[in-house]
Hints:
The protein has 13 helices and 12 strands. It has 3 domains: 3-243, P-loop containing nucleotide triphosphate hydrolases (Rossmann fold, 3-Layer(aba) Sandwich); 250-307; 331-430, no CATH class. The chain has helices at 43-51, 83-89, 93-111, 116-131, 134-149, 153-156, 166-178, 196-208, 220-226, 248-286, 291-307, 367-375, 425-430, and strands spanning 3-12, 18-27, 32-36, 58-64, 67-70, 184-188, 212-216, 229-234, 237-241, 331-340, 347-352, 396-402. The protein has a 6-stranded mixed sheet with strand order 5-6-7-3-8-9, sandwiched between helices. The two termini are 52 Å apart. The mean pLDDT is 88. It is globular, with a radius of gyration of 29 Å. Bound molecules: adenosine-5'-diphosphate and magnesium ion. Magnesium ion (MG) is lined by residues 43-44, 72, 188.
Amino acid sequence: xxxxxxxxxxxxxxxxxTLFDEVSFRxxxxxxxxxxxxxxxxxxxxxDIVTGALAxxxxxxxxxxxxxxxxxxxxxxxxxxxxxxxxxxxxPPPVRAVAARLALAEGRMxxxxxTEKEQLAYAQALADWGEAGGYEFDVLCDTxxxxxxxxxxxTVKDRPLRTLSGGEQKRFALQLLLQxxxxxxxxxxxxxxxxxxxxxxxxxxxxxxxxxxxxxxxDREVLANAASSIVTLEAGTTWTHGGGFATWHDARAGRHERxxxxxxxxxxEHQKLRELMLMYKNKAAYNSDMASRYRAAQTRLQKFEEAGxxxxxxxxxxxxxxxxxxxxxxxxxxxxQLELEDLTFPFDLEVWYGDRVAVLGANGTGKSHFLRLxxxxxxxxxxxxxxxxxxxxxxxxxxxxxxxxxxPGHFSQTHEHPEFDGRTLREILWEGD
Length: 433
Ligand SMILES: Nc1ncnc2c1ncn2[C@@H]1O[C@H](COP(=O)(O)OP(=O)(O)O)[C@@H](O)[C@H]1O
Ligand SMILES: [Mg+2]
């Protein structure tokens, strides 16, 4: 079984700031290691370094046993690509290398009447495909397609990715990696878009796998149920907790206390050296024999200060989400016999100002459709979001209505925002509602 080993890894952003430094940890054989850290801490960047997509500015990364990679936004924003492209992206490198050539040769055979040269190229590509393990890979794709989509590979491999739900894409990719040959898996937020049963399935699959797995997650339950040790990326470096998530908070608190203790000791030592220096300074003023001791004390203090204090413990994040509006006894959302076509039975709903309502349901039951309908202003397209952001219409019968002067804000699950392409963050915020 494979492993990953990082030693003294440093990476800086193009603006010159160091994202992280002195990152060292090991994903041992069969270990299930979670990488956690705040948004923007650099987890995805660090995984890119592990997989070789990015080169570190310092330090080394080594691994053995073949590396399978699932990116954070697997399949997102590439909705027109067929499922087989996603599969090939996740295939072992030899298969990946031949797949493109085989598709090309196949295409040429299909269009022309097949010159001898084209036929030979096709035959060669087929032979290489077999050599690289391509047929085994096809069998694996079929197994996974049947398990996740309930259909044989031949019937689904050309489906555009956008016709699969986010959860289906993730589960497909995961199963392909878990059942594949790579002995080390690197998974960036594999639990995104998964509903609760699929998350439980993921935890189980990670636990039961004999592969070495490094994964990023923000879900406490996934962390608690799947990770055997935890690497935390914070304050520009990582530290490793050799236990599960259940004991992580205590480990972190203990670590912070040790930092504070080290800092206290440093301050005390600093104070002592200063007092010593001042004492010799006084003595040296009327006893020239003391001059060399005074100089020595000065040098010691200077060296101590140059070495600097131990690192401060990372600041606690203090995030307050401010949702405005108190309870007023006015209705904000009214649904009467609302039926989302092919998704729900008719239902009634009232949401009052100040309510906080969670919409729960399995993947594919229509939660996003429902929210999108409300974001459009409900059944009455004249109310709701302005025309800047055009949302796909939601087919429905019955009524969904917003209360008087209710202007919906809409935050959607996926990162698909074609309308953001080519615009800077400033432009997007400036023109926002
Ligand atoms: N191409 C880039 N140019 C400038 N900054 C970047 C670039 N890519 C990533 N970053 C920044 O690097 C930081 C780490 O990003 P990322 O690794 O995606 O974090 P995480 O996965 O932990 O949320 C973020 O502050 C992000 O804005
Ligand atoms: Mg990330």
